[in-house]
TrEMBL record:
This is Glutamate--tRNA ligase. The lineage of its organism: Bacteria, Pseudomonadati, Pseudomonadota, Alphaproteobacteria, Hyphomicrobiales. Catalyzes the attachment of glutamate to tRNA(Glu) in a two-step reaction: glutamate is first activated by ATP to form Glu-AMP and then transferred to the acceptor end of tRNA(Glu). Residues 5-307 form the Glutamyl/glutaminyl-tRNA synthetase class Ib catalytic domain. Pfam families: Anticodon_2, tRNA-synt_1c. One of its GO terms (biological process) is glutamyl-tRNA aminoacylation. A motif ('HIGH' region) lies at residues 11-21. The keyword Transit peptide does not apply. GO terms for molecular function: ATP binding; glutamate-tRNA ligase activity; tRNA binding; zinc ion binding.
Length: 475
RNA sequence: GCUCCCAUCGUCUAGCGGUCUAGGACGUCGCCCUCUCACGGCGAAAACAGGGGUUCGAGUCCCCUUGGGAGCGCCA
């Protein structure tokens, strides 16, 4: 009987949930689901200066939007400080850790000297074997781990393979700060142990930390969890995905008009693969996910591919789902694009009716809103340059000539208007496109749109004829 | 500087010694479909970083070089 799988996502609340964190959370979640285990959520808020309530809210909100759930209550690391200190003091009592009275300035000098000499920048262990009686008066000491000086520390990583460090290269890290609060290194180990975490899946910027944490586990005599360090996501330029390179919070992707399912599918394929499969439903992801499929090299973030996936998921969505998704972001992105912040029942009905033609042509919800301009546009319409050109180049005359036939239609449907327009084109010896394009321009203000006759059907007789008359009058 | 990690088309990747004249996807470029734009279909260009080994045989194993990345805090 092996212990049930327990993974955890442990962000520090110093900012929004960025895309890399989102993927880490996704991998942890998938792994837990795959093996019938649990994913825990721990907020690493021991940095009291930088942790904020707003960031915690943003992270929780981001996870929720992505559809990633966690088991049990959220664990706040700062609340466990007493337990962390207890472990540090236990190690101290057992002789596996010691008080270090070196001042920050002393440490800085040590680093400077090492840098100047081209040596590794490590703590030199000056208090490791000194008697506490030599302690300078009035200095609050930190507690450092008495790390092994010989031999090696090995991390058997599920993604990176077997990674080895010479212990002489690792220094005595601080476990407890002079103010009695735990360092990240200690807190992570104690929490993961107490939370019974079996698999630590995180970014490979933590790979070196895994070695140092392994030493803490060993000093405590605890079982070491499986480690899996996944490669980082880079920006399109290959550099680290940083804020200045446009690293966005997941909330930004929502505003950009991406669907959670699309982002999840994009993210899971960034660094992980399952043969040639590109599309994964959530169920398929869970069934197929494993650490053995995770690659070791960093991936660049590619918006073009994300857009393609998003278009795929939009087309696969029902009209009603799409309109609902639009309504979520409309208050935020609508007004700026000249669209309403909310859909009236009448407009909403038009959106639903036009959705089949609209969703074929958009890659994001924002594009969808934009291309639906003709639905919420008020007369007189504004025209894009290309549309204006179509009308100016004899288009208005054609619209005017065709108008009587459309007005005479006994019923107003896509089929009936199409019949009238085709008949008109045939009579006048024009190609359908020569008639359709000016009509499109007059009706939508654009040179591109969903099928012309669907547009007229959704707009209705009255509005369609009014827009056409607006142009015919100027012919 | 020191330690560690990585390296297949522009990008994400398949490949786990022979089935690779290297496959898929995005993007790009043609053609088809067509009332526009998309979607869809068909097709094309496009990669094993370089050099040494090991082996009957290397994209696949080892070493070096080069190029990326991460870490080196009383931050997380």
């Amino acid at each position: 009987m092996s212990a049930p799988v327990v993974t955890r996502f442990a962000p520090s609340p110093t900012g929004f949930l960025h895309i890399g964190g989102g993927r880490t959370a996704l991998f942890n979640w998938l792994y837990a689901k795959r093996f019938g285990g649990k994913m825990l959520l721990r907020i690493e808020d021991t940095d009291r200066e930088r942790s904020t309530e707003a960031a915690i809210a943003a992270i929780l909100d981001g996870l929720q939007w992505l559809g990633i759930t966690w088991d049990g209550d959220v664990v706040y690391q700062f609340a466990r400080a007493a337990r962390h200190r207890e472990v540090a003091e236990k190690l101290l009592a057992e002789g596996k850790a010691y008080y270090c009275y070196a001042s920050p300035q002393e440490l800085e000098e040590m680093r400077e000297a090492a840098r100047a000499a081209g040596k590794p920048m490590r703590y030199d262990g000056r208090w490791r074997d000194r008697d506490p009686s030599e302690a300078p008066a009035g200095v609050k000491p930190v507690i450092r781990l008495k790390a092994p000086t010989e031999g090696e520390t090995v991390v058997d990583d599920q993604v990176q393979g077997r990674v080895t460090w010479q212990n002489k290269d690792l220094d005595d890290l601080v476990l407890l700060r002079s103010d009695g609060t735990p360092t990240y290194m200690l807190a992570v180990v104690v929490d993961d142990h107490d939370m019974a975490v079996t698999h630590v899946i995180r970014g490979d910027d933590h790979l070196t930390n895994a070695a140092r944490q392994t030493q803490i586990y060993q000093a405590c005599g605890w079982d070491i969890p499986m480690f899996a360090h996944i490669p980082l996501i880079h920006g399109p330029d290959g550099a680290k995905l940083s804020k200045r390179h446009g690293a966005l919070g997941v909330d930004a992707y929502r505003s950009l008009g991406y669907l959670p399912a699309a982002l999840r599918n994009y993210l899971v394929r960034l660094g992980w693969s399952h043969g040639d499969q590109e599309f994964f439903s959530t169920e398929e992801m869970i069934a197929a996910f494993d650490l053995s499929g995770v690659g070791r090299s960093p991936a660049r973030f590619d918006f073009a591919k994300l857009e393609h996936l998003n278009g795929h998921y939009m087309r696969a969505s029902s009209d009603e789902e799409l309109v609902k998704a639009i309504e979520v972001i409309l208050p935020e992105v609508g007004p700026a694009k000249g669209a309403p912040a909310q859909l009236s029942p009448e407009l909403r009905a038009k959106f639903v009716a036009a959705m089949p033609g609209l969703k074929e042509r958009a890659k994001t919800l924002v594009e969808l809103i934009d291309s639906a301009y003709y639905l919420y546009a008020q007369r007189p319409l504004s025209f894009e340059p290309k549309a204006e050109q179509l009308l100016a180049d004899g288009g208005r005359a054609r619209v005017a000539a065709l108008l009587p036939a459309l007005k005479a239609l006994p019923e107003w449907t896509a089929a009936s208007t199409e019949g009238a327009v085709r008949a008109f084109a045939e009579e006048t010896g024009a190609k359908l496109g020569q008639v359709a394009q000016p009509l499109r321009a007059a009706l939508t203000g654009r040179s591109t749109s969903p099928g012309l006759f669907d547009v007229m059907a959704v707009l209705g007789r009255e509005e369609s004829l009014a827009r056409l008359e607006d142009q015919a009058a100027k012919a």
